[in-house]
Write a structure and sequence with these properties.
The protein is an alpha/beta fold. The chain is 30% helix and 28% strand.
């Protein structure tokens, strides 16, 4: 990384006497009130320590308004010499040398290189710090020493909480399997393009990889429309359709109680609860409650939503509507699959006494799901 020095205008600081600066700095660090991205500055006979929250600092036992002053100054940003991954490797090498005289390469090579950030919580992959050498090492140390290791990782990533991701469960509810490593709560709030989501990462999953599709769906004007979201989850598409697309009402089908709780909390955060009805249970049953009501049906499940195609058509108004069909398809077979999908929907529509007039309006390539496998969304108009 480059080491260009930048200045921050109007940084919040507390001015303290030089003789007290070291003690006060330690207090602020312990209370997590120091802004350690900024360089401490000497101002006349005082030391300016950058802080994060003036009101909390004023309540600390050492603060004396006759001796200390909170103000704003121009401060320099610290030079960033290391990436977070490099910082982890540097700090962990120093820590591990306390325990090993031998080669550390097996441990260092298995340190985090990527992670997901959710506010003050970082989730590292299951494979990280989980090889046989790490497992042997963790068995040989105390819980307090293990906590020190996770604190080193968290500090380098500038977070307070740390968790490890396991594989998503293959059950019907696609249960998240995340283990907290540092901190107790997995609850997070995410602001995604103006839409606020809430979830507990230890109970439900958040699909960061679908961000472009969430934005695309949110950009479609759905004013006055009734929507059925057949696989609502925590509201990945339900909430953007309510908040950004301005849908009149969304019927959200979901079977997982933890996802339902997250969706309810998200609806409250976005103040859209009055335009949302949650249909709890197996969607092949709950979708029957909304037959002939919808202008649009969203089928956001992978690898295939095929089992719900007939129910989705039944949900559309007699005059017709639109389907958003998510599927995993081999790259070289996408064109053939789109034709197959269109023909299948037309055939099902005719069997359900509809005209069977179908047109493909758009095919979105969302992301690579696996080598040669694309996650696609087919927008289909049905009459």
């Amino acid at each position: 990384m480059t080491e260009a020095t930048k200045q921050v205008d109007s940084a919040l600081v507390v001015l303290v006497d030089k003789s007290d600066a070291s003690t006060i700095r330690q207090s602020l660090t312990t209370m997590k009130l120091i802004d350690d991205k900024l360089v401490i500055k000497e101002v006349n006979s005082a030391i300016a320590i950058p802080i994060l929250d003036a009101e909390r600092v004023k309540k600390l036992s050492w603060f004396d308004h006759t001796k200390h002053e909170i103000t704003e100054l121009n401060l320099l940003l610290k030079n960033q010499k290391y990436t977070p991954a490099e910082q982890i490797a540097k700090d962990m090498t120093l820590y591990l040398k306390q325990y090993f005289d031998s080669d550390l390469s097996g441990l260092i090579a298995n340190l985090p290189q990527k992670w997901e950030l959710f506010g003050d919580l970082a989730i590292i992959p299951n494979s990280v710090m989980n090889n046989s050498q790490w497992q042997d090492f963790f068995r040989s140390i105390t819980q307090e020493q293990e906590r020190e290791i996770w604190q080193i990782i968290a500090q380098a990533l500038r977070v307070d909480r740390l968790a490890r991701q396991d594989k998503i469960a293959t059950d019907m509810m696609r249960t998240s399997q995340v283990k907290m490593l540092l901190g107790h709560s997995g609850e997070v709030e995410i602001n995604d393009f103006g839409v606020r989501f809430w979830l507990d990462v230890t109970k439900v999953m958040f699909s960061s990889g679908n961000v472009t599709e969430r934005h695309r769906i949110g950009n479609i004007d759905m004013s006055g429309e009734i929507i059925v979201d057949a696989f609502a989850g925590i509201g990945y598409y339900t909430l953007p359709m309510l908040v950004r697309s301005n849908a009149q009402h969304v019927y959200a089908c979901e079977i997982n109680p933890n996802s339902i709780q997250a969706l309810q909390n998200g609806a409250k955060l976005n103040n859209v609860g009055k335009r949302l009805t949650i249909l709890e249970g197996d969607n092949l049953s709950t979708m029957q409650q909304v037959y002939s009501l919808a202008d649009r049906v969203h089928l956001g499940i992978l690898p295939s939503s095929k089992k719900t195609w007939q129910s989705a058509i039944n949900c559309l108004k007699p005059s017709g509507g639109k389907l958003h069909i998510h599927m995993n398809v081999e790259e070289e077979k996408i064109e053939d699959f789109v034709t197959y999908c269109s023909d299948s929907i037309a055939k099902l529509a005719k069997q359900l006494d509809r005209e069977g007039i179908v047109s493909v309006e758009h095919v979105e390539k969302v992301k690579w799901y696996a080598p040669r496998i694309r996650h696609i969304v087919i927008d289909i108009s049905v009459k």
